[in-house]
Predict the structure.
Amino acid sequence: GSAMWMFFYYTLWSFENVERKLQNMELAGWRLTNVCLYWFKFVKARPRNVRYFLIHSIPKDFGMIPCETKLKCEFNADPVCRDHYIQIYRIPNAEGNFYDLEKFRNIYLRRVCRWNMLISFLFFALSAVALFVGIVSGIAFDAKVFITGLICCASFFFLCHYFRGHIILTRKMRAQNRKP
C-alpha cells in the first residue's frame, strides 16, 4: 500500500489534539504505523473508528505503567509505536470513558513538568551565579563558557513559558467544564 509522512507539531499539553487528528486520519483511511519526533507515518488502510491515546513516559520512570496496563487490559489497546518519550496506543473501540486515564496522564505530566522546571532552574541558578561571580571578580570568560551560561538561562525561560502555556490551557478547560 501507499505510505505518507505528515508533520504534526505538538506539546505535552496538546495530546488530545494529536489523538483527535490521528483518529480523523484513521477515519479517512490512513493508519498510523510510525512516528519520528514530529513526523508521523501513515499507510493506506480500511477506514475504522478507533481511538488513539498518547502516553508520555520518561525512561526508567514507571509512573505511567498503571495507565498502560489499564489501556491494554480494559480497552484492548495495541501499542502502535514509541518515539523517545511518547508511546502511542490504538484502541479498537472508540467509545468508552477515558476520563480517568486522561486525568492520570495530566497529573503525571504536571509532575514531569515540575521536575523539568526544577532541573532547569538549578542549571539557571548555577549559570547565573557563575556568570555573576565571573563578572564581579573580573574573570575573563571563554566564549564557550559564556554561551553555555546563556543557553542554560534561555532554556529555563523557555521551560517557564512552556509551563505557563499549560497553566493557561488548564484554566481554560476548567472554565469550559464549569459552564452549564
